[in-house]
Design goal:
heterodimer; A: mainly alpha; 10 helices; B: mainly alpha; elongated
Chain lengths: 227, 229
C-alpha cells in the first residue's frame, strides 16, 4: 500500500491518453497476429493431421524452426535481415514487422495445437462423414474442424495470450506499442515506478481478462462428453 | 579457439570470435542463473501450494498469476528500472542481475505450477506412509514426495531450460552483452566500417545456433514425457 501511495498519481493521470493510444497499437498488432495465427493454424494443422505429402513436411520444418528459436531473433531477422536479401531487398515498416512476426510465431504454435485437435477426432467420425456423402473437404469442414477445433481451443487460446505478450518485444525494433511507449516515456521523465506500474497493470488486466474469457468460452464450447 | 576462416569472407572471423567469446558465455551465465533460481524458488513455492493454509496458498497463487501474466520484458523492466526507486529497496541492479532476476520471477512461476501438479499426482498413501514412519512435513516432502514427483517434473524442467535459453535474448534490451547483443553490435559495427551490416547472415546464423541447441532439448523433453509420465 505504501508502494501505491508513493506513486505520482498526477503524472499517471496526465499520461493516460498516451498509454491508451499505445494500448490500441498493442491490441491492433495482437489482433492481426491472433487472426493470422488462427488461419495458419487451421490450414497447416489440417495439412499436418492429414499427412499431405511434401506440404506436411514443410509445415513441420516451419513449426520446429519457429518453436526452437527466440522470437526476438526472428523479429530482428525480419526487421534488419530481410532488407539484405540478395536480388530484391525487402524493407518492412515497424508495424508490418510487428504483426508479421507475431503471426508467424503464433501460426507455428497454433499449427501444433490444431494438429493435435484434429488428430484427436476419432477416425470413425470421419468415416461417418464420408458415408453421409461428404467429400474429403466437406468431411473436414463439417466434421473434423468443428470437433477438432473445439478440442484445440484451450491450447490455441493460450497461444493467443502469448502472441499478445510477445508484442511487447516489438519495443526492440522501435514500434510504438505499449512497452515501447512506456520505455520512451521513462527515458525522458525518469518516472520508472509510475510507468511500469501502469504498464504491468494494463498487461495483467488484458491477460487476466482473456484467461477468464477462455474459461467461459471453454465451458460453452466444450464437447458434450467433456462437460 | 582459432576458427576455420579459409573460404569465408574476412568479416566473419572477428564477428564469430566476438560472439563466441563474449556473447555465448554471458548467455550461458544468465541461463544457468535463471534455471537454478527458477527451480529452487519454483519447487519450494509449488510444494507449498499443496498445503491447506488458504492465505499462504492465495499469496503464492497471486505470485504465479502475476509473473506468468506479465510479458518477460515488463518483468525485467520492473526489476531493472522501477525496483531501485521502490521504498526500502534503493538498490540498483546491474543489467545482468536485473535480467537474471526477471527471468527467475517468470521461470519460478512456471516451475511452481508444474511442481504443484507433480506433487498432487503422488498418491495420498505415500504421504500417510511417510507420516507413519515419523517424518514431519519437511522430511515427508523432501525425502518421500519430491523425489517421486521429480520424475514427472523432469520433462517440464527440460522445457523450461529451452524457454530460458531463448528468453535470455530479452536481456539484450537492457544492455546485457549476451549472444543477440553481440550479434546486434557486430551488425552496427560492420555497417559503420564497411557500409554493409551483414544482418541477414548474422541473425540467420543466430537462428541456426539457437535451433541447434534447442531442437535436441525439445526432442529430449518429448522423449522424457513419453518415458517417465
Amino acid at each position: 500500500m505504501t508502494l501505491l501511495a508513493s506513486l505520482d498519481w498526477h503524472f499517471i493521470r496526465e499520461h493516460i491518453p498516451e498509454f491508451a493510444r499505445a494500448l490500441k497499437r498493442t491490441l491492433e498488432v495482437a489482433g492481426i497476429g491472433i487472426a493470422g495465427a488462427s488461419a495458419i493454424g487451421v490450414v497447416l494443422g489440417a495439412v499436418r493431421a492429414h499427412r499431405i505429402p511434401v506440404l506436411s513436411q514443410l509445415a513441420a520444418v516451419y513449426v520446429e524452426v519457429i518453436r526452437n528459436t527466440p522470437i526476438l531473433v526472428q523479429i530482428f531477422l525480419l526487421a534488419y535481415g530481410l532488407p539484405q536479401l540478395p536480388g530484391h531487398h525487402i524493407i518492412l515498416q515497424p508495424f508490418t514487422v510487428g504483426w508479421l512476426s507475431v503471426t508467424i510465431w503464433g501460426g507455428a504454435f497454433n499449427t501444433e495445437n490444431f494438429r493435435a485437435g484434429f488428430e484427436a477426432v476419432p477416425g470413425r467420425f470421419r468415416e461417418a462423414g464420408r458415408a453421409l456423402g461428404f467429400g474429403r473437404l466437406g468431411t473436414f469442414l463439417n466434421v473434423t474442424l468443428p470437433i477438432g477445433g473445439r478440442i484445440a481451443l484451450p491450447s490455441s487460446i493460450n497461444t493467443y495470450i502469448s502472441v499478445l505478450k510477445n508484442t511487447s518485444l516489438l519495443t526492440a525494433v522501435g514500434y510504438a506499442e505499449l512497452t515501447n511507449t512506456g520505455y520512451s516515456l521513462e527515458s525522458v521523465t525518469f518516472k520508472a515506478p509510475e510507468i511500469f506500474f501502469v504498464l504491468g497493470a494494463t498487461y495483467l488486466v488484458v491477460v487476466w481478462t482473456l484467461s477468464i474469457l477462455i474459461r467461459l468460452l471453454e465451458s460453452r464450447l466444450a464437447l458434450p462428453e467433456a462437460r | 579457439m582459432p576458427l576455420p576462416v579459409g573460404t569465408l569472407p574476412s568479416w566473419v572471423g572477428p564477428v564469430a570470435h566476438y560472439m563466441a567469446h563474449d556473447g555465448v558465455p554471458e548467455t550461458l551465465r544468465i541461463a544457468a542463473f535463471a534455471v537454478t533460481g527458477s527451480m529452487i524458488v519454483g519447487i519450494v513455492l509449488g510444494t507449498l501450494l499443496t498445503i491447506r493454509f488458504l492465505p499462504l496458498r492465495s499469496l503464492i497463487r497471486l505470485y504465479i498469476e502475476i509473473w506468468r501474466g506479465l510479458p518477460i520484458v515488463i518483468t525485467i523492466f520492473i526489476v531493472f528500472y522501477a525496483l531501485p526507486s521502490a521504498p526500502l529497496i534503493h538498490h540498483r541492479f546491474s543489467p545482468f542481475t536485473g535480467a537474471a532476476l526477471g527471468l527467475v520471477l517468470w521461470g519460478s512461476a512456471q516451475v511452481a505450477e508444474a511442481t504443484r501438479g507433480a506433487v498432487q499426482s503422488i498418491p495420498r498413501e505415500q504421504h500417510e506412509a511417510a507420516s507413519a514412519l515419523g517424518f514431519g512435513w519437511v522430511g515427508r516432502h523432501g525425502s518421500v514426495i519430491l523425489p517421486q514427483a521429480l520424475r514427472r517434473l523432469l520433462p517440464p524442467l527440460v522445457g523450461l531450460l529451452v524457454n530460458v535459453l531463448q528468453n535470455t535474448t530479452i536481456a539484450s534490451i537492457i544492455g546485457v552483452t549476451e549472444l543477440l547483443a553481440t550479434g546486434q553490435r557486430s551488425t552496427e559495427r560492420l555497417a559503420y566500417s564497411s557500409g554493409d551490416s551483414h544482418a541477414l547472415a548474422i541473425y540467420g546464423a543466430l537462428m541456426g545456433a539457437f535451433f541447434a541447441i534447442s531442437f535436441p532439448l525439445t526432442r529430449l523433453a518429448i522423449f522424457l514425457e513419453r518415458r517417465l509420465v
